[in-house]
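Handout, section B. The chain below has 446 residues.
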Amino acid sequence: MQDRWGLLYQEFITLAKKGNAEVIGMEDYPKIINDINEIYFRVYKKDKYYLVPQLLQELQIEFDLINNETEITVGDNLEKNQTRLQELSDNLLRYNFRFEQLENEVLHEKEKLKQYIQQKKNVEEDLSKNKSAQKMHNLGGQVHSSISSSICPTCGQNIKDSLLPADVDRVPMQIGENINFLSSQQKMIEVYVNSQRKSIIEKETIVSEYGNYLTALRQQIRNIKKDLVADDRVPSEELIERKINTKRSIAFYAEMVENINELKKKLKKMSKEWDDIKRSEANMAGNFFSTLDAQKLEFMEGYFLSLMKKFNYQSKDKDAIKISREKYLPVIEVKLPNERPKTYDIRFDSSGSDHIRCMWAYYIALLGTSNKFSGNHPNLLIFDEPQQQSASTTDFHEFLDELSKSDTSQSIVFASFQNSLSDFVQATQDLNFNRIDGNGMFIVKT
């Protein structure tokens, strides 16, 4: 549906560009449209905006007036042509001034847009660096050393997070404050960028219309000048050409109205389909899962998140982590600019060690949920070298501690403890477990 809606949106945009118009009310994502008249095309002509049907009416009135005058000869229309020539010349000067002024504004706003985009890029880079610094700082907090506590191991003085001279009595923002500030700044700049782009598009539409109008004015001035020196008995060339051009415009915008109506029919039909889909989803949300199913999923999600916290998962905020109701796997949920939620696999936004922590939590949560609700789990977990990607020994101890708590299931862990006896002692301290040493290969030929 989203792909089809996107293609229809492009049809609207293409038709608008063809008629030098703007589409108002149409979005590039599916939405329920209760009033189709909320979607309309407008055209900038003669210093004002017209709806396409209104412009068509204006052109028809103009054509009728011109049509009544085409039988008049150049001689009969001499005085009127002189007056009209003066009006057109004044209009040419006035609109040419506006055209150049607006063209300069567009160039200026495009430069501002480039600056905003560069600012946004710089803020995003600073935000990424601060988040990385925060992650390293949090990871360093697990290491029992003086430097992880911001104390110089040589002289014992505090290590400041600032390059300001020691005699400057100012307290710089901490990493967390920097992240909050940069995040707010990023959102603010995004608003500026979107607003600037919208303003540029609107002004470019007006500039294009001014350009077309100036071309038409120059042509009319040339034709009137020809009429002023032509034989008094011949018809006015300027009126004839204006009549032809007006008739072409009427035909063009009449066809555009038909195309708009066809697109609106498609849009109305697609909006109805989207409404049906949302209603079906709402019904499924209420009926697809039984009450017991919902309880299982809620328990599993809560248990999983508590384990993620226990195992010190750091890559994403816990509020953004969910258990998918479609695939029952861990996902990250984010809000799009249109406020619609979107989910993606958690492994795409987790560090290597955090991905391992996520796997620990997920497998244990599956087992715990099955035990609580009498599920079909075989009550056996087997892990082969689960302490991968340099997961800390402290977190690994929490993992083994969680496994040792179950008295209704069995867990088998094949681990080398980084070939360190001290790591083994630290990871298994105060745990209830059976130790099986591997003196060679576990599986041998007999």
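Note. The chain has two domains: 2-133+186-285, 292-427. Compare this with the example in section A.
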